[in-house]
Amino acid sequence: MSAQMGMGIEAGLACLPHDAEAALALPVVHERTVRVFGEAGLPADGAQRPDWLAAEVPVAMVFNGVSHAVMMATPDQLEAFALGFALSEGILDRADDCRGMEVHCVDGATAVLPPGVSAVEVRMDISVRCFERLKQRRRSMSGRTGCGVCGVESLAALDMTPERLPAKPWMAQVDAATVLRAFDALQQQQWVNAQAGSLHAAGWASLDGALLAVCEDVGRHNALDKLIGGLARDGCLQEPGFVVLTSRGSHELVRKCARVGISALATISAPTATGVQLAELAGVRLWGLCRSPRAVLYAAGA
User: Fold this and answer.
1) Mean pLDDT for the chain?
2) Best exposed site among 26, 29, 31, 251 by fewest CB in 10 Å?
């Protein structure tokens, strides 16, 4: 696995194959002139300055020619995003259930989008077994950056009773000092957020707290899916380690981790009560409010 999966503004598309990268050519940030007020030394009517804003584009997930979901996302690491989404949503059981993938830009006018807004389709060929299962429970989802369970068609479809993960002998090593060590390193690797200030990050850390990979996105779910997809692609999902997230510990993030076998999760903000409940059911070790020198253990894990 590469030391970085989030490579900053200039290399934001580095994880895509050259053909996909050429097809996209979408920036992850946009420059805009803004007027700033209230700083010391500024005149009463403010001052104009250049600023950077995070890009946010519709990304359609298309399985065997059928569009299943549209998520608003930062337009980089989209192959990892699509694979992670398919795994964490239970569409695929394993990474090799995806037999092929193509990333395409979609003309804004064709997609009936406002002028200047781009869109992307990620087209995946998946196994017959997974596609038949998807058709049986298919739903139409419209995702937004703050989404939780967008498009679920019934309460039964929430899938709030996860299978319990097997006990991990290394679980106790994911202690407060280790978790905080990973968070201390996380901010330094959020290069796009350093420019735009509006992105979440998901990182993968080893049992000594070393941060091995970081993914950024305007959506916390998307950042986690990008990380999951990269780990799955590199065959690292089953290795000892834990996820750190610049978000709250909500139930859907815990559920995504549990579904792909990730047994430990730490978040910078507090979890929800349902997030803790799902972590206890799934045997996920859940840390929250991880702001040095303090961290809170909400669920011990299996």
Assistant:
1) 87
2) 31
CATH number for the domain formed by residue range(s) 171-299: 3.40.140.10
CA distance 194 to 208: 26
Question: Are residues 72 and 88 in contact, defined by beta-carbon separation less than 8 angstroms?
Answer: no
Q: Which two tokens stand for residue 163?
A: 């299978």
Active site residue: 105, 147, 150, 236, which one? 147
Residue 143 DSSP label: -
> For the whole model, what pTM was predicted?
0.87
Ramachandran angles phi, psi of 158, nearest 5°? -65, -25
Other CB atoms within a 10 A radius of the CB of residue 94 amount to: 12
Token representation of residue 45:
């009517």
Residues 120, 28 contacting (CB under 8 angstroms): no
Q: What is the CA radius of gyration of the chain?
A: 19
* H or E stretch at 52: strand 47-54
**Token reading at 150:** 């967008």
Percentage of residues in the chain with pLDDT exceeding 70? Answer: 85
- HSE-CB of 170 using CA atoms within 13 angstroms: 13
pLDDT at 20: 46
